[in-house]
Specification:
This is Acyl dehydratase. With 169 residues, the chain is α+β, with helices and mostly antiparallel strands. Helices cover 23% and strands 32% of the residues. Strands 1, 2, 3, 4, 5 and 6 form a 6-stranded antiparallel β-sheet that branches.
């Protein structure tokens, strides 16, 4: 808690700095066939993720990114837009939907919208933020959507040593 600047090079934003309705959109990122295959071979070795030739016979007509891979991409892209939030940790995802397969050559953007903010009921120096995320193609077609619940440090926590994490707000 001693760093004054976030990985984005800006001051950390604490719970008090967040606003319901705040939206952010990431820069674009294009997904390649090589990264789809590499990720899948390591973490989700389904044939339609790992074998370009065999995948041509699938319902997708080509290799597609594993849903877990798309979520890993979301995580990287979210850090580019929300990496200045002083998160304690994530505590859950709700309403997760894999709505459209991500294919090689697809260019993605991530958007976030803060849905709700609730101060700690336990008196700990943090609050709960619920954010809706969308991973979408550049034309707006949604690929993955979900709501993420996260604990966020308060300004008070920046000066206190009692910052142990637990899922309890």
């Amino acid at each position: 808690m001693t760093d004054t600047l976030s990985p984005l090079g800006t001051p950390w934003r604490t719970f008090e700095d967040l606003v319901v309705g705040e939206t952010k959109i990431s820069p674009p990122r294009t997904v390649t066939e090589a990264e789809i295959v590499e990720f899948a071979r390591a973490y989700d070795p389904q044939w339609f993720h790992t074998d370009p030739e065999a995948a041509r016979q699938s319902v997708f007509g080509q290799v597609v990114a594993s849903g877990i891979h798309v979520l890993a991409i979301w995580r990287q892209m979210d850090h580019a837009i929300n990496g200045d939030i002083d998160f304690v940790c994530g505590v859950g995802w709700d309403r997760l939907r894999l709505k459209r397969a991500v294919r090689a050559g697809d260019t993605l953007r991530v958007s976030s919208e803060i849905l709700s903010l609730e101060p700690s009921r336990s008196g700990k120096p943090r609050g709960t933020a619920v954010t809706r995320y969308v991973v979408a193609l550049e034309d707006g077609t949604e690929c993955v959507t979900f709501e993420s619940t996260n604990l966020v440090y308060t300004r008070d926590a920046r000066d206190r040593s009692d910052t142990s994490a637990s899922a309890e707000a």
